[in-house]
Amino acid sequence: MSPVRGVPGGPGPAVIRRTPPDWAGRALADVLERAAATRTETGDRFPLYADPDTGRWTTTGRGAWTGGFWAGLLWLRARHTGNAGDRAAAAACTARLAEWVEADTATRGLILWYGTALAGADTGARELRTRAARAALAAFDTELGLVPWGSAFGGPRLLARVDGVPGMVGLLAAGGPEGARAAASHLHRHLDLCLGGGGRVVPAWEFAAEAGWQAYEEPSAGWSRGSAWLLLAVADALHRTEVSRSAPDRLEAVAERLADVWTRPCTPLVPPADEARPAGPLDTSAAAIAAVALLKLARLPGCRAARYAYRAAAILEHLVGEHLTRGMLLDGCYDAGKGVAVRHELVWGDFFLALGLAALTGLVEIRDV
């Protein structure tokens, strides 16, 4: 298959072909049919990762940091089918995320933004997002200039981690002008800490009163999802004027640096989970996250829009052609260092693949998610 030329409805030069590619529609239908089967298998539990051979899911009772992606996947299915039963299932799943509103974790952005952003006019999801925005703003530490990583998953509480930024930008911004200022501060403090030279990302930092901010050992600097998460957060912010207007030039420059990591010549479409282990496991979920981020950047004006659209579509097409089996996006890596689920289907990998495909086919407006 040849790479897709452009994104439907994108601005200016990114729109080279408006007809959705056939492979994207077929793949989206497969992923969302798989979601229906997963819903039957898991019931009220949340899928986390699935065995590549059997397809059986490891699940959690509360959803952990990935629960919002499962809810988001169900909302995508509901949009795709228009079925009232699918909408009810998505709404019920989203309602089960409510206990995370007051949890001490910056991953509330991942859970409660992505779990509600595709819900449209659903009243319950809208009310949950409003509550979550208020709680996130209340957790903002004015001295540190961010919402700390938190204690919900153990370990040090005063961490700044790149996976605590995407989703949190949108969630904080939903809290009005004060929330938008907090969202900008949260993002820029993470950029100050996590963005190294040449677009290299140091994913985690720990704060101590005596020593200030110090690089934290986990996740390691070669973690593939590090740059993908940060690129997604910056792309989100650039679509929110209330967040980006304080430093638009900086965010545009950072987006270019981070996007270059994913678009430069000879860069693999799917990276190793750890760049220090190039022969180790891949991480298709990192590629899917980056593709969505690039699709968002392609919806901004500028001479790089077509490049970003082309690369995003190439990544998605490669994921579909080489790693998608019966609606399962395989070769995702949950934790390479600990050897946990290193070639598996990951619920957030499925979500971001489906979201990217939904953008290519016109099912969603990527700027809104």
Task: Itemize the secondary structure elements and their pairings.
Blueprint: H1 22-42, E1 46-50, E2 57-60, H2 67-81, H3 84-95, H4 108-114, H5 123-138, E3 159-161, H6 168-173, H7 176-194, E4 204-208, E5 212-215, H8 224-238, H9 241-244, H10 248-263, H11 284-298, H12 305-323, E6 324-325, E7 328-329, E8 345-346, H13 347-361
Antiparallel strand pairs: 1-2, 1-8, 3-4, 4-5, 6-7
Helix pairs in contact: 1-2, 1-13, 2-3, 2-4, 2-13, 4-5, 8-10, 8-11, 11-12, 11-13, 12-13
Descriptive overview:
With 369 residues, this protein is mainly α. It contains 13 helices and eight strands. It has helices at residues 22-42, 67-81, 84-95, 108-114, 123-138, 168-173, 176-194, 224-238, 241-244, 248-263, 284-298, 305-323, 347-361; strands at 46-50, 57-60, 159-161, 204-208, 212-215, 324-325, 328-329, 345-346. It has a three-stranded antiparallel sheet. Strands 3-4-5 form a three-stranded antiparallel sheet. A hairpin with a 3-residue loop joins strand 4 and strand 5. Helix 1 (22-42) packs across helix 2 (67-81), helix 2 runs parallel beside helix 13 (347-361) and helix 4 (108-114) runs antiparallel to helix 5 (123-138). The longest helix has 21 residues, at 22-42. The chain is globular and about 50 Å long. Residues 1-17 have low confidence and may be disordered.
